[in-house]
Amino acid sequence: MAKVIDADGAVVGRLSSLISKQLLLGEHITVINAEKAVFSGNPLVVKKRYLEKTHRGGPHKGPFHPKCSDGIFRRAVRGMMPKNKRGREAFSNLRIYIGCPEEIKGGEKEGKRSEDLNCKFIVMKDVAKQIGGRA
To answer: What is the pLDDT of residues 37-77, one digit of tens each?
Structure first.
């Protein structure tokens, strides 16, 4: 049975580091509500950083950066995994969903939440729409 984590209001970096550690321990992880995770910091700077990433390279050679919320979250977790066979195998145990599928019930809330932040933040859904992706 996979462990279900609700990303609603969680800070992306903190949650992705917790998830990567659990994946390396051999757990199967399912993340729901990925579009409701937040980036801490000035919203304008965050949007600008992700917009610049998507415009790098060419359309045929890359680098290719995700524009959707689940892809952005997946790439954040992948960046914290080791770049070897063990990391790739552990990363294959991760499932990320936009919203909450009917077959998955509830989920644990882990990591620091947006209610606990004393700084500005932006929801991942808004970043994805700004760079041309869907939710």
So the answer is: 999 999 999 999 999 988 888 889 888 889 999 999 999 99
Residue type, 22: Q
Residues 6+ apart with CB under 8 A from 80: 16, 17, 20
Tokens of 47: 């949007």
Candidate CATH numbers 3.30.70.20, 3.30.450.40, 3.90.1200.10, 3.90.1180.10; the one for domain 3-130: 3.90.1180.10
Bridge partners of residue 11, in order along the sequence: 38
Inter-axis angle of helices 69-78 and 12-24, nearest 10: 60
Q: Identify any residues that bridge with 39 across adjacent strands, giving them in sequence order.
A: 122
